[in-house]
Amino acid sequence: MAQRAVWLISHEPRTPLCGTVRFSRRFPTVEKRAKVFNGASYVPVPEDALLLKALLFEFRLLDDDKDFVESRDSCSRINKTSVYGIPVGGEELWPVVAFMKNCMIYASVPLVEQTLCPRPPLISISGVSQGFELLFGIQDFLFLSQKNDAELNSKLNQLPDLLLQTCPFGTLLDANLQNSLDNTNFASVTQPQKQPAWKTGTYKGKPQVSISITEKVKSMQYDKREIADMWQVVGTVTCKCDLEGFMPNVTISLSLPTNGSPLQDILIHPCVTSLDSAILTSNSIGAVDDSAFSGPYKFPFTPPLESFHLCYYTSQVPVPPILGFYRIQEEETQLKITVNLKLHESVKNNFEFCEARIPFYNRGPITHVEYKISFGQLEIFREKNLLIWTIGQKFPKSMEITLSGNITFGTKKHEKQSFDQICIGSTAYVKLHFKIIDYTLTGCYADQHSVQVFASGKPKISTNRKLISSDYYVWNSKAPAPVAYGSLVL
């Protein structure tokens, strides 16, 4: 349910155009959706001047338009719904919701989420009822307790900002515009400031700023001299700023420790107002050297109301957090496996969870397992041909753990769809799943004392960070490495 455009047209007889467009609002994102949904039957929303003339003609309000017109006045075209087909530029724009009240024409074009040929029944177009609700809400706002033209003009000037809140991106949230005006601080609504597209209103309440840094580490480890292991960190900085005022300003600084890996390939949210050129030019294509920009990375911005991703980044850390070795040997119906995992000494040894999953797809059912582990617990899922090695919240003091065992498989009774097209025969892997709270592999952090907020009230500032595994594989060292599998690109 959405609107492609909205107009308010005043009827002014005995003037050159017989009317004036007092207000118009188009929603480009909805217009793009209409083009996709309507296909070959799509008719674009016309310019204001063309629509003004077409609507005045449809309502028989043109001074020289007193004669009978077959296409408009025929008995076969009696309109009972206030939904019209308006001829513009040799095509017909339909449906157009329009009615006249107090010498003002209220009109909107609802989105139709299907082709328009043949025309679907009006009852199936939810945007039509939404269009009426929006137009009635605008009418009530303009003329309830309205006393003179000056007050009407003042309310018309408030409409753009009110629609940002009540009908963002063409979708109606609240038809009571007066209620939205009363409950929101619109002291600056008549000022010439332009509301940014990512902010649909203003906040009222206790001020607070929340910053979360999430890094996902990807890794492909082969234990082969001829094929280099690969790993990469992809970071996301998420913010939620509950701040009063029309355009509060916030500056967040991301810092790195002395030995931290520089941030690269930084992508920012449109709300960021300015940025150091050194931040934008740091990318992972060029070689990293001692002169690479290592912060602090300052992001001044005007925050939207909802939670948003302030920026994304990558980083080339020197080593992956967990180094792995995996080897399998086939002996008839039995499989001998060896897995070795080692936590790097620089990584925080305090996991929320950590486990290794070892699948055996495209084989018969697991019938027997003999194993030995130096740490953790092993679960066997026979129906899924899967071993889950639960490591827990800490590695032992040695930072190294091993698993070895013999797995016996039954006869494969029937073909069934593979869970993984890569994990076939000796081309097998161990996939790690882990999460570390209050830690990032790059060392990146947001110091809450360096956060600058230019808004009324002193906000509560909270920060957190975490490291999560994503596509973290250790491949069988004796098998051909599936180098094309997975991607380390953001």
Protein described:
Keywords: Cytoplasm, Endosome, Lysosome, Membrane, Protein transport, Transport. One of its GO terms (cellular component) is cytosol. It is found in: Cytoplasm, Cytosol; Late endosome membrane; Lysosome membrane. The chain is of the alpha+beta class and 490 residues long. It has three domains: 3-183, Beta-Lactamase, CATH 3.30.450; 208-319 and 441-473, Immunoglobulin-like, CATH 2.60.40; 322-438, Mu homology domain, subdomain B (Immunoglobulin-like, Sandwich). The protein is built from seven helices and 22 strands. The chain has helices at residues 28-38, 48-58, 70-73, 126-143, 149-166, 177-183, 277-281, and strands spanning 3-11, 19-26, 83-88, 91-101, 104-110, 208-221, 230-242, 249-255, 264-268, 297-301, 308-315, 322-331, 334-343, 351-359, 366-373, 377-381, 386-390, 400-409, 429-437, 445-446, 452-454, 460-475. It has a nine-stranded mixed sheet with strand order 9-11-7-6-22-19-14-17-16. Strands 2-1-5-4-3 form a five-stranded antiparallel sheet, sandwiched between helices. Helix 4 (126-143) runs antiparallel to helix 5. The protein is elongated. The model is unreliable at 185-192 and 483-490 (pLDDT under 50).
Query: Can you tell me the number of structural domains?
Result: 3
Order of helices and strands: EEHHHEEEHHHEEEEHEEEEEEEEEEEEE
Describe the global form. Answer: elongated
CATH fold category name of the largest domain: Beta-Lactamase
Roughly what is the average pLDDT, rounded to an integer? 84
Subcellular location: Cytoplasm, Cytosol; Late endosome membrane; Lysosome membrane
Membrane topology: Peripheral membrane protein
GO biological process, one term: endosomal transport
Main location: cytoplasm
